[in-house]
Structure formats: C-alpha cells, structure tokens
Design brief:
The chain is of the alpha+beta class. It contains 18 helices and 38 strands. The relative contact order is 0.07.
Amino acid sequence: MRRVGALALIVGATSVISALLVERLAAQNNSAPVAQPATIVVYYPLEGSVFPPEIIAPTFLWRDAAKDAAVWRIDVIFGGRTPRVQARTAGERMRIGEIDPRCATETNQPILTPQQMETHTWTPDTGMWETIKKNSVKRPAIVAITGFRDESLKEAVSHGQVTIQTSKDPVGAPIFYRDVPLMPSEGEKGVIKPLPQSAIGLIKWRLRNIGEPQSRTVMENLPTCANCHSFSLDGKTLGLDVDGPQNDKGLYALISVMKEASIRNQDVIKWSSFRGKLGGKLRAAFSSQVSPDGRYVVTTIDDPEAQTRQRGRELVDKYYVANFKDYRFLQVFFPTRGILAWYSRETGHLQPLPGADDPRYVQTDGVWSPDGKYVVFARAEAKDPFPSGGKLAEFANDPDETQIQYDLYRVPFNGGKGGRPEPIKGASQNGMSNNFPKVSPDGRWIVFVQCRNGQLMRPDSQLHIVPFQGGEAWRMACNTSLMNSWHSFSPNGRWMVFSSKSRSPFTQMYLTHLDENGRDTPPILIDNATAANRAVNIPEFVNIPQDGLQRIDAPATEFFRVFDAAVDLARKNQVDAALVEWKKAVDLNPEEAKAHFNLALALDRKGQVDEAIVEYGKTIETDAENASAYTNLAVDLARTGKVDEAVDWLTKCLSFNPENAQAQSNLSTLLVQKGQFDRAIDHGQKAVDIEPDYADAHNSLGTALAMADRLDEAIPHLERAVAIAPDSFEYQFNLGRFLTAKGKFADAIAYFERAVQLSGGREPLSLDMLAAMYFETERYAEAVQAANRALDLAVKLNNQDLITALRARLAIYEAKASPQK
C-alpha cells in the first residue's frame, strides 16, 4: 500500500508542476498563455519510466485534446542548474510500420485502433537522447509537450508532460528471442501446431543489443520448428526444443554457445530413447530448463504410472491444446499430466525428480535457483485434458477450456535425489493459476505469471513477484493491459524482459527495472524487434558479450527436411523418388533408426527384399526395441525361405514387448508353416486377446486352428477377419478354402468370387478354387470359364506345375459341361 501511495503523491505533484510549467514555458518563448489549455495525454513512455543507460531513443506517443494543434514543442527540463533542451515536431501520426509480405494473409492484417490513429509521435535524435539520458540519472527529467496552432509558436493550445529517468544500471547483455509469423490454420485436436507447415521456414531466432537500432538474425530457414529454449546462467550452454520429422516433439538439442555455434546430430537428445517405470517409451518432454552450470536439464515428461491404455496401444494425452483461427491468440496450450525429470549430460541418463514425480499431480514449468540447489515448479491436480463429452474451446479463456489452476512449489535438487515439495506462500492457493516461475540471479525473488486458468500466454496473464522463501506477493508495475509473460532476468538481476500484446496483437517485448527491494518500473518497449506483422516470443537474456553469438547453424535439421520430403513422396506413391530421399536421409544420419526403417519399407515396395532385410537389421541395431522392424524383418526372412530365422526375430521382439499383437500374430503364421500348430494357436490366441479387433490376429488364429483340424473353432475367427477387413484378398481366400475343407462348397463361392475381384482377376489360385467350387455345385459352364482364365494366367506366369494341373481339371469340367451344350 505504501508503494501505491507514494506513486500517487508523485503523480499529484507533477500535475501541479504542469500548470506552472505552461506559464513558464510560454513566458520563456514569448507566447501567450492559455487560461485553460487542452490536455495532452502522454501514452508512452509512462509516468515514472526508467530507461537503461545504453538503450536507443524511444518514440514518444501522445494524444492531444486540442483539435487545432498543428505543431508541438518538446521541452526537457532537468533538475539543478542543467539547461533544458528543446525540439520542435510536426507530431507525425502513428503508423503500422514495416510489413513482411511473406507472413501476410487475409486474416492477420495489422491495423491501428481508433485511439492509435489519433496518436502523435516524436523520436529524439541521437544527440538529444544522449543528453537526456546523461542528465536524468541522478534525478528525473520532465519531458513537457506543448501544442501550438502554427509554426510561430505564439499561441499554446495544449500541454502535457511525463517524468522519466535513466538508471545507472546497464542491461549488460543481449536478448535472444524467437521471431514468428502469426498465421492461423486449421488445427487438429491435441496436436501442438499453431503454424501451417508452409510457414515453419519463416521463423527466425534473433539476438538484440538494446543499444543498437535493429536485431541480428542468428538462425533461420529451418525446415522444422524449434521453440522453447533456455541458457545456462553462465551463458555457455543453450538448450532448445527441436521438432523432428512429422511433428515429432521428442527431440532436444544441447549445444555450446560460441560466436559460430552449431546443432549437429550428436547434439540432439531423443527423449523417446528413455523409458518410464512401466517400460513405455516417452513421447516428448516439455518446458525444459538448463541448470545454471549447464550440467543438467529439468523437464516435464509423461507420467510413468499412467503412460498407456488398452494394453499399451493408446498413449495417454497430457496436454490441453486448442488451435484457433484468430491470429490475436492462436492457441491454448497447457499440460494436465506429467512429472519432472532431470537429465545428466555427463551420464546421459534421464530420471524422475523425487518430490516432483507424484502421478496424482501435473508438475511442470520447472526452473532452477541460481545456485542449482532448488527447482521451483508449478503443480496442479492431474486430470484428463479432454474429458468425455467436453466441448473444445473456440477462443482463449473460453469457459469450455479444461479448467486447471497451478500452484508454485519448491523442491531441493539434492544431486537428483530430490526431497519434500513445499508450496510457495503468496504463489499458491490464492484462487488463481500461478505458473511459469523465474528466479532472480541473486536468488531473492520469484517472478511468475498469474491468470485465471491454464498458463503463460493468456489474455489475462499478469506478472507477480514474491520472495523466494514465500511471503507477500504483489502485482508488478510493468504489467500492461493484455498478456504479460515469457519473462527473463538480466544477468545482473536489475532488468527483466517480457512479452506483451498490449500495443499490438503481434507480441512485442518490453523491459522493466527492478531495485534491491523487488520494486519495478513501468514497461519500456524494445523498438524495431521485428516487422509489424510478426511476433516476438520467448525473449531471454544471455550472459555473453554483445557479439558473443553471431550465428547458429543447424545441419541436424537437414535430415528432418529430407525425411519429411521422403514421407511426402511416399504418400503420393512416388516410390522411386521416395527411395532416393530415404537413402539421403540414411547418409545424413546413419544413427537414426526411423530412416533405416523407412528405407527398408521402400525397398520392400520395390521388391528388393534382400536389401530391405539389411535395412531392417540396421534399424534394430540403432533401436533395439523397434517392434515393427522385428516383425517386418521376420516377414521378409520368411519370404526368402528363412523361416527359422524369422521365428527367432519374432521371439526376441516378444521378449521385450509381449503385448505386441502384430508380432504374436506373425509368429503364429510362421509356426503354422513349421507345422507347430499348438504353439501357433497359443500365439494367435494371445494376439486376439491383446487386440480383439485386429483382423490379422483372427486370420492367423483361424488358420492355425484349421490346420490343427479344429475347423468348427477356426471358421468364426476367419469370418471375423473378413468382417473387419472385407477388402483383404488373403482373408477372403483363407475363409473360402477352409469352408471348402469343411465341405461347404456353396458358401465358399462368395469368398472366392470376392478374392478374384480383389485381385483384379490376375491371381490364378483364386480362379482355380472358384472353378472347383462351381464344379462341386454343378455350375459346370462357369467352372470351365473360371478354369480357362486361371490357365491363361498360369501360362503367362510360366508356372508349369499349375498349367499341368489346370489342364487336367479343365478336361473334367469340360466333359461335365458338354452335355449341357
């Protein structure tokens, strides 16, 4: 309360000064004072703003109630005997600014509000601004703006003023941030993808020295999205979430910061290579933060106690995600499940952090204290992100959003052993959602986001500050009217950068100064950070010299580009072109299992089975638990007559993943070939139990039962396979042949007819069986016709054994058919 009162007193005093100042300035310039001058309201900078000593000149913004004001005089008055400085301006109207045409669409055109269209502007020249900064360090300066009717400056019609000051504390470090387009696109429920794929390459990563007029691009034109990042406190390490091929959220890069940095294959961590307590692979990590010394990373991972449903086939969602077509707020995104885990760069291990790994809660937004002894995080009761029957939100803060409110907690790191979590008083149990904490470099303060629901990028996000040990929290003076988040402390702890949408839907970044008591100042805009139709997010101070990072190359992402190109070609059925790209992908990253696996699939489609076998083997070498590689390898080995080897590979697959229905089904099929019908039935039954609606499992089990002379048990499973997948030639043919074995010739005809249709009439065995069924049901003419079609195909295939058999059967059919002529 004392702080607010003091501010009111200052404002009141300056308003008294304002009236006196008009008369004094008018007298000094021989202009006639106005009894009641119209009001000029200065909108930027705000009263009491404090500027860094190295910042470039700001653009002053004001609105003038005097409609006849045509020119304005700027007087800057300093304390003591320092002479005032003066400037004259035409008060140019506020403008939109530079537009990036690549990011422009019909739905995201920036426009000025009616108030902004009435706003006048003035930017001090370099010399004047340096004078203002130099003389406003020890005491504030008054910037007085007086409006006149004409260039003679004889008749003042309006007046306003603002008090500003320059801090003795430099910012002292550049700001790293992401520069993104806001281009609405159709989103998919639960998929984190606010931009269309075509816009990903437009994202830039920039570094800003506030003493320079423009930012410097350090990374751009990536074929994939790289987003949340963090630097170690010493500025030597950068951690960066990197989306892999096909929107894979499971990759993370850790690199050394230097003038010419690089993201290489060996710098990329695959969270999917780690397993939870139940053995399921992790899909992704979220909100990762590098430790102060760069040795560790704390991150949010899947809840290991509830990773899978339905016997391991459906992964549990842990994020609430809703994408919108309104570019002002494109997305709602927050986790509703997950635990904190820590990764050691030295050991390469990822493991849960005790005290922040309770599956009853979602634990997220973990950050380190500057000494590395504690992790501060947000916690809430875990819940399903998309409750059954719930409606997906249509806009940010829609009441239909899944409701969740986080509290801030602190837990000791204790060398990874963790400890008891403690709620932070003032940032918990206050009826609001407390999230996204950041700890000041001196360890005394936590600045966090408070909003009604969810976290971070909300319309009502407000920055609050609380002592590290907990206590009274208060709303910071730097808050703007709309969305305040993505904050970061300068290395010296005296400045904080954050993002806001108060001046434009295209997010901009601001600075505020903090003193030793945690008191902060009104927001200072960092001008010209990007184009007017692009947004700035995730700004972070980096503890390096201003020229300490010139460029980040990302050769690892070239693999992602080639991979996605190959996927696209494969989807278009351009097999040859896809095969070329898969070979490139393997050359770029020979340790990537997915590349070898997809190359093997392409080789299979080309009929190059021996080469495919080699690639499946390499897949398993780099990903020893890739179940699909085992099953496909087994299939190809069986094709080449290596049934025993195929059985061995499937047995290995089931040793680490016994719930794999495909492996169980394929093993059943191979055991039938080996004549081991009892074992085949056992594995076929397991496949059906694991996945009751898996057609291949029913087909395998039905075949095994039939071969064991248990036809009555076999037929229902074969019928079930056909019902699930009626367009399968194999299932139709198998049901037909086992109905034949049971003597149900008339019933078998429909399935053989369907098999012939599905093969396009280009498969001789189905025609041969159909001819036999026609013969058995005394449809002799149709038997002759079908047998002739089968014989023609056998001749084309040069299958001598089949030709001989068909000619013999055809003679019998023709003999029976001839009396009907």
